[in-house]
Design goal:
The chain folds into 2 domains: 102 residues, SRP54, nucleotide-binding domain (Four Helix Bundle (Hemerythrin (Met), subunit A), Up-down Bundle), CATH 1.20.120; 200 residues, P-loop containing nucleotide triphosphate hydrolases (Rossmann fold), CATH 3.40.50. It is elongated and about 65 Å long. It starts with 8 loop residues before the first helix and ends with a helix. An 8-stranded mixed sheet has the order 3-2-4-1-5-6-7-8, with helices on both faces. Helix 3 packs across helix 15, helix 7 crosses helix 8 and helix 11 packs parallel to helix 12. It is of the alpha/beta class. Helices cover 50% and strands 11% of the residues. The chain is built from 15 helices and 8 strands.
Length: 359
């Protein structure tokens, strides 16, 4: 991984040549694609009572298992093994964070915050392992900020543009969002504006039929802007609450792609007041730091308002959630933790931290 080459460099800058000194850790850590017939879309409203909330949390915890193994359990092992919080300790912690794709900037912030919190305990004795884990959890929550739900129009139709490179789960995300809103009783229009891939158009048609939502499509090779226009017109005629637009993701033709996305923005802004209300960038969590590079490309061109992080259940690189927030300043709004239609969940930072640190 490209960013691990500087392991220890930040620690030396932060603590100086001799490190932060020695502090005892007195306590050992604790041991530690199918559409369902019914169900919610993973929103807070769908969870219902305690049983529903517990089920949603259990799914999130299960989805984060590989990230937890590669990050939290390694940190617990370090905290139990190292008796002194010296420079070597912080260098090992830095390596663990970077290897989990937390990213350089977020790693530096976590290490600095941990050192400050540990320093504040000197007057009442050394921090123990449980305290250290608690400090890191607090830093993670502070970094992620509050939950930011999907934005919608105050009245009329809400337009959501979904962008991203091919292979990230973009078209599937559009289908799952349509399924979610339909289950909530909304009228939904899906727009197949990725006209360069016949497979994407067909896939969206399948989602539309299964979820019971309308799909606006043109022939392969058609004008994506025309699809967006027709989707908006259909939404107005049918009084739909949502238009969700799939878009192309041919990053190898970056300039043309970005101009195409800008055109779609202009079309929907002209047809529906305030549109697009969300521009969601779909990133594959298994890509780790490569996802950050993709995000920068789209952010500069299309004013991304939120991130959808897919395949979070299939990677040990879930630390990229922190890198996205710290390096890009874009909130993660949805996460994919499975293949089912109801496995696209609203991203709740508190639940994420609880599930990540729950061992």
């Amino acid at each position: 991984m490209g960013e691990t080459g500087g392991i220890g460099v930040f620690v030396k800058r932060l603590f100086g040549k001799d490190g932060p000194g020695s502090r005892d850790v007195s306590e050992q850590p604790a041991a530690g694609g199918t559409l369902p017939g019914a169900g919610g879309g993973g929103t807070g409203a769908d969870k219902g009572g305690a049983g529903g909330a517990k089920g949603a949390f259990a799914r999130l915890k299960e989805g984060l298992a590989r990230t937890r193994d590669g990050l939290v359990l390694k940190m617990e092992s370090l905290f139990g093994r190292k008796a002194a919080l010296d420079q070597e300790f912080f260098e090992e912690l830095e390596a663990i964070l970077l290897q989990a794709d937390v990213g350089v900037k977020a790693t530096e912030r976590l290490l600095r915050g941990l050192e400050e919190r540990v320093g504040a305990t000197r007057g009442r004795g050394a921090a123990d392992a449980k305290e250290l884990m608690g400090y890191l959890k607090e830093e993670v929550l502070e970094m992620l900020g509050p939950e930011e739900p999907l934005r919608k129009a105050e009245a009329g139709t809400s337009v959501i543009m979904v962008v991203g490179v091919n292979g990230t789960g973009k078209t599937t995300t559009v289908g799952k969002l349509g399924y979610r809103f339909c289950n909530q009783g909304a009228r939904v229009i899906l727009g197949a504006a990725d006209t360069f891939r016949a497979a994407a158009i067909d896939q969206l048609e399948i989602w539309g039929k299964r979820a019971g939502v309308d799909v606006i499509r043109h022939e392969e090779g058609g004008d994506p802007g025309a699809v967006a226009y027709d989707a908006c017109q259909a939404a107005k005629a049918r009084k739909a609450e949502y238009v969700i637009l799939d878009t192309a993701g041919r990053l190898h033709t970056r300039v043309n792609l970005m101009e195409e996305l800008k055109k779609i923005r202009r079309v929907v802004a002209r047809e529906i007041p305030g549109a697009p209300h969300e521009v969601l960038l779909v990133l594959d969590a298994t890509a780790g730091q490569n996802a950050i590079a993709q995000a920068r490309t789209f952010k500069d061109a299309v004013e991304v308002t939120g991130i959808v992080l897919t395949k979070l259940d299939g990677t040990a690189k879930g630390g990229v959630v922190l890198a996205i927030r710290e390096e890009l300043g874009i909130p993660v709004k949805l996460v994919g933790i499975g293949e089912g239609a109801d496995d696209l969940r609203d991203f709740n930072p508190t639940e994420f931290a609880e599930a990540l640190f729950s061992v």
